[in-house]
């Protein structure tokens, strides 16, 4: 029941002036490289071949972590969007926009690796099962978020509009999952993924994968957020 | 395409996707740093 | 409850405007009618999948109707800075949304109520006992679609592409309520309740309630600046 003016987006110079590179950034970057260097041999050689699916199952080690990051990134977009609306501070928009762009990359990777795993193992590139369908929708919502941002040149309005989309979109994803789950249950899916009883080596490899991708996401965020703020500074011709 | 073919495309494809993105992002940052001039750390 | 009066006033304004010009209903109604007629050519009129395909086509037509109507409705506010007039009035922001929502529901509802009998006749469907269910599905599905659409049309109309971006924003987000509506409509065409139908109806109710709340909460932020 608010009729008084809402916080306008903070356009103060102090908020826009970019910082030097974050000190922990190099650490994150190095950690990412190290973790990938460990993950790849683990996934491709050390992990045992799956009894039923054979070697294509190894795609799982870069598919599932990417899917996890896709969700995490969208959650960060959600949090950032709420921050934009409640506080009006630009840094929340920087976070939301960066996470959306990065999340789109990971989600794209999920939609590419998924069919590549599905084809040799189950014979089809695509199926309308709940997980894949929700993921496709997630990707589409990400894209519409990015497209919307491209269509609004004014920073304050752009931040607010994408914030609303970010909130609505995030709340929608679990509902999409539930509804496609019900929908497809009338034609039982063949792809029941037995997660219980993963052999230890596979579990370890998966956990390494998740750690790797999380660190990678964090690194990308530090770079992207800074790039975003630099862009704003350039757009508004703020020089130190 | 045999089993390892799919694995190869998936891994190499992902690597390309992430690699190109990171490269593009870092290049963009460098370009913006130059445009914004010398920056004082806060 | 100081929202009700302003909402009704705003809705009334839109409806009176529409009655005078018949702008939205004519163009949207005709377009949707054409879609239905053309779709029914490529249609199995008998057989297994008929109810499912029929339900799907019907809801696509409804979605077109809703999107076109909502885009136009918000665009009207942009002309002659009507929105500024609304904003400087003492009406709370939320009731601007509710007023717009009510008007959009009315427009879309009228188009749908015309399309439905045409559809049933053209495709020789026999819903019989499923008619109440059909109406329920139409009502709940339209509410969900128009709630999200009205919220996003407030965004779309202020972007470079104007209303053109509205479908892009609305369609992914409205997938759950669309699936549910199609499922229930399909059951209605088959003549009665299917098994999981209650679950689908509940999903629509939950979706409508959730996004109505979210829309009311976030709409005020769209009217800033």
How would you describe this protein?
The complex is a heterotrimer of chains A (240), B (42) and C (225). Chain A is mostly helical. Chain A has helices at residues 13-16, 25-46, 60-87, 90-122, 130-151, 155-184, 200-235. Chain A has one domain: Four Helix Bundle (Hemerythrin (Met), subunit A), CATH 1.20.120. In chain A, helix 3 (60-87) runs antiparallel to helix 4 (90-122) and helix 4 runs antiparallel to helix 5 (130-151). The longest helix of chain A has 36 residues, at 200-235. Chain B has 42 residues and is an all-alpha fold. Chain C has one domain. The two termini of chain C are 26 Å apart. The model of chain C has no long low-confidence stretch (mean pLDDT 83). Chains in contact: A-B, A-C. At the A-C interface, helix 5 and helix 6 of A face helix 6, helix 7, helix 8 and helix 9 of C.
Short description:
The complex is a heterotrimer of chains A (240), B (42) and C (225). With 240 residues, chain A is mainly α.
User: What's the count of strands of chain B?
Assistant: 0
Please trace the helix and strand order of chain A, writing H or E for each element.
Answer: HHHHHHH
Largest sheet of chain A: none
Q: Report the C-alpha radius of gyration of chain A, rounded.
A: 20 Å
The coarse overall form of chain B would be rod-shaped
Task: Write down how many β-strands of chain A occur, each being a DSSP E stretch of 2 or more residues.
Answer: 0
Helix/strand structural class of chain B: mainly alpha
Q: Would you tell me which CATH topology of chain A applies?
A: Four Helix Bundle (Hemerythrin (Met), subunit A)
**Cα distance spanning the termini of chain B:** 55 Å
Count of alpha/pi helices of chain A: 7
Q: What is the gyration radius of chain B calculated from CA atoms?
A: 18 Å
Query: H/E order of the elements of chain B?
Result: H
- In CATH terms, what is the architecture of chain A? Up-down Bundle
Largest sheet of chain B: none
Q: Kindly report the oligomeric state of this protein.
A: heterotrimer
Terminal Cα span of chain A: 42 Å
Structure annotation, total helices of chain B: 1
